[in-house]
Write a structure and sequence with these properties.
The complex is a heterodimer of chains A (about 90) and B (about 180).
Chain A: H1 2-11, H2 26-84
Chain B: H1 2-27, H2 30-47, H3 57-85, H4 92-96, H5 111-121, H6 126-137, H7 142-149, H8 153-182
Helix pairs in contact in B: 1-2, 1-3, 2-3, 3-7, 5-8, 6-8, 7-8
Classes of the chains: A mainly alpha (about 90), B mainly alpha (about 180).
């Protein structure tokens, strides 16, 4: 009996609860957060774009270098083969 | 852009109390509730342009608040776990003192009982806690809760029923401790 009464008292303890007001400077804090995010966002985008551009340039340069090396190796081979593999 | 700011400020003034109080009921800490309220409105500001009016602003903001509260709780509990394994910080009491929350909106004579209630509410499952808080503390109807939680009304009824049963069972166990302490 006592137990049930206590449980009901606890369950009903929020009856008559009133709303709590947030602090007055909350809107100012929110606006500051928004401004900070807006400031950061374009810079971050530019950093990402620059990093991607650098990576792409490096990849292209390396690929071209490898291709030139490949071409020179095959032309050298052709040259030596032509010289040493004479059929006459 | 100025138009968006005007709409945002109107929304802020209309829903700030609702967001702050739901966050307070959920997190049971005034500083945490303020932090989550800030995050909710920053999210609202950035999503305002994409809001498709499929639901009311109220429902939409309720959803954002619940999600932010859940994220915050998860982050806080993972920080707590890290703290337990790592070096001790000065915020020890802040992390471990969540079950002694005294809600500033509760009548003085009910404070002690409410502390017990909030401690037990925190042991409910996420959905049970959300449904119970929206129903009991925010005073929303089951259809309103169903819309916010994107569930059927019967599912909400079942959640609230199970939450109440669970609270009664847990409080029954707590009663023994309470008796030992006060008798």
């Amino acid at each position: 009996m006592e137990k049930d009464q206590w449980i009901q008292t606890v369950l009903n303890s929020t009856n008559g609860i009133t709303t709590v007001m947030p602090s007055d400077d909350l809107l100012a804090k929110i606006q500051l957060k928004i401004k900070q995010q807006e400031k950061v966002a374009p810079t971050t985008v530019w950093w990402i774009a620059a990093s991607i551009a650098v990576l792409v340039t490096l990849n292209v340069a390396l690929l071209q270098k490898a291709k030139t090396k490949d071409n020179s190796t095959s032309s050298y081979l052709e040259h030596t083969l032509n010289q040493s593999n004479q059929l006459y | 852009m100025p138009k968006q700011s005007v709409i945002f400020e109107t929304i802020y003034h209309e829903f700030k109390v609702m967001v702050f109080n739901l966050a307070l009921h959920y997190l049971q800490n005034i500083e945490d509730a303020e932090e989550v309220t800030q995050d909710v409105f920053v999210k609202v500001y950035h999503s305002l342009a994409h809001f498709q009016q499929k639901s009311s602003y109220k429902t939409w903001i309720y959803r954002i608040t619940i999600n932010q509260c859940l994220d915050f709780t998860k982050k806080k509990s993972s920080r707590k776990r890290l703290y337990l394994f790592g070096a001790k910080s000065e915020n020890e009491s802040e992390y471990l003192n969540t079950s002694t929350f005294e809600h500033p909106g509760i009548l003085m004579e009910n404070q002690e009982a409410a502390v017990q209630l909030f401690a037990v509410i925190n042991t409910l499952t996420e959905n049970q806690k959300t449904a119970f808080l929206l129903s009991k503390l925010d005073g929303l109807s089951n259809p309103e809760i169903a819309e916010i939680m994107e569930m059927s009304i019967s599912a909400v009824e079942s959640l609230i029923f199970r939450a109440k049963v669970s609270l009664q069972e847990k409080l029954a166990k707590k009663f023994t401790e309470y008796r030992k302490k006060y008798k």
